[in-house]
Design a protein that fits this description.
By secondary structure, the chain is α+β, with helices and mostly antiparallel strands. It is built from five helices and 19 strands. It folds into two domains: 195 residues, Zn peptidases (Aminopeptidase, 3-Layer(aba) Sandwich); 75 residues, OB fold (Dihydrolipoamide Acetyltransferase, E2P) (Beta Barrel), CATH 2.40.50.100. The strands form four sheets. Strands 5, 6, 7, 8, 9, 10, 11, 13, 16, 18 and 19 form an eleven-stranded mixed beta sheet that branches. Strands 15-14-12-17 form a four-stranded antiparallel beta sheet, with no helix packed on it. Strands 1-4 form a two-stranded antiparallel ribbon. The chain is globular and about 65 Å long. It starts with a strand and ends in an 8-residue tail after the last strand. The structure holds zinc ion. The site of zinc ion (ZN) has 5 residues, from loops. Zinc ion binds next to loops.
C-alpha cells in the first residue's frame, strides 16, 4: 500500500498587479517501495495544461493550482525537489502563444555529457516525435536538473490556449511509460503504438530552425503542424489590414524539414516566434548532438 503525503510549499510570485503575492505549489509524495525517486512535474509555465491534467488523472487527490509564468517556480522546485530525486519528467506545451506537434523533449544544458538512457526514456514516453534543444539559462528546469545530475525528459504537448482529452491521455500514458522504463511500474500494453515505431528526432537548436517576425503584422500561415516544407518555401505572410496600401510580406521557411511548432495567434510583433522547422533524424543520432 503506497504511503501518500502532501508536501505543498509556497513561493514568492509578485507581479505589478499583486505585490507580496505567493503561489502554492501542490506536491504529492508517494512512497510505494524500492526504485529510483522520480519527480513528475507539470505547470512550471502555468498556461500549459496537458501535463497538469495528466498528473491530476494519476493523483486524483491533488488539486490544480495553475499559475502565471514565473521563473521563481523553477528555483523553488530545484531547492525542494531535485536534490531528492534521480529522475524527472517535466511536461510543457506551447502555452498560449505556440502550438507543438506533440513531442517528447530532450534538452542538453551547457556541456552535459550524453546519457545513453535518454533514447529509451523518449521511446517510453510513446510519442512518435522528439525535439532536441540546447539551453544555457541558469534558471531553467533543465539547468537545475543538470546541476543535480537528475536524468530528465521533458515534453511539449499541444498549446494554443486549448487542450483535449486525447492529448491529456497521451501525456498520462507517456508518464506511465516513463515510470515503467524507470522500473517503478510493470510495463503494460499501451493504447498508442508509437513506442514500438521509430521515433523521429528534430534538432531545434540551429538558429535556422526558428522563424521570427521581424515587424508587426497579422500572421497568415499557409502550412500546418507536421507538414514537410522545403528550404525557402513560402509558409505564409504578414499582412496589415489597417494599411491596405502596404503589400503583404511573404514569409519563407528558414530551412527544409517538418513544421514542429506554429504560432496560433494571428496578431504578431517584431521578435515573435512564428514557426519552427527541422528535418527528421533517427533518434539514435541523438549521441551526435553531444
Ligand atoms: Zn513551458
Amino acid at each position: 500500500m503506497a504511503n501518500v503525503t502532501r508536501e505543498d510549499f509556497s513561493v514568492a510570485a509578485a507581479t505589478n498587479a499583486s505585490a507580496y503575492r505567493r503561489v502554492t505549489i501542490p506536491v504529492l509524495r508517494i512512497e510505494a517501495g524500492p526504485g529510483p525517486a522520480v519527480a513528475l512535474i507539470a505547470g512550471v509555465h502555468g498556461d500549459e495544461w496537458e501535463g497538469q491534467a495528466a498528473i491530476l488523472d494519476l493523483c486524483s487527490r491533488a488539486p490544480a493550482r495553475p499559475e502565471k509564468r514565473d521563473s521563481g517556480i523553477a528555483a523553488a522546485l530545484e531547492a525542494r525537489l531535485l536534490s531528492r530525486v534521480q529522475a524527472m519528467v517535466d511536461v510543457h506545451s506551447g502555452g498560449a502563444s505556440l502550438r507543438y506537434l506533440p513531442s517528447s523533449v530532450i534538452t542538453r544544458h551547457g556541456n552535459d555529457a550524453y546519457d545513453d538512457r535518454l533514447p529509451a526514456l523518449a521511446r517510453a514516453f510513446g510519442l512518435p516525435d522528439c525535439v532536441f534543444f540546447r539551453g544555457g539559462e541558469a534558471g531553467s528546469m533543465p539547468a537545475a536538473a543538470s546541476r543535480h545530475s537528475v536524468l530528465r525528459l521533458s515534453a511539449e504537448i499541444g498549446g494554443g490556449r486549448e487542450t483535449s482529452q486525447s492529448l491529456v491521455d497521451r501525456c498520462r500514458d507517456g508518464l506511465l511509460g516513463c515510470l515503467a522504463e524507470l522500473g517503478l511500474l510493470t510495463p503494460r500494453a499501451r493504447p498508442h503504438a508509437a513506442q514500438d515505431a521509430e521515433v523521429r528526432l528534430y534538432d531545434l537548436d540551429a538558429p535556422a530552425a526558428t522563424l521570427r517576425a521581424r515587424e508587426s503584422g497579422v500572421f497568415v500561415p499557409a502550412v500546418e503542424l507536421g507538414q514537410s516544407v522545403a528550404a525557402r518555401q513560402p509558409i505564409g505572410r504578414l499582412i496589415e489590414p489597417a494599411r491596405p496600401d502596404a503589400p503583404p510580406r511573404p514569409l519563407l521557411s528558414p530551412q527544409a524539414g517538418t513544421v514542429v511548432c506554429l504560432r496560433p495567434i494571428a496578431r504578431s510583433d517584431d521578435g515573435d516566434c512564428l514557426l519552427q522547422v527541422a528535418s527528421a533524424l533517427p533518434l539514435d543520432s541523438l549521441a551526435s548532438k553531444y
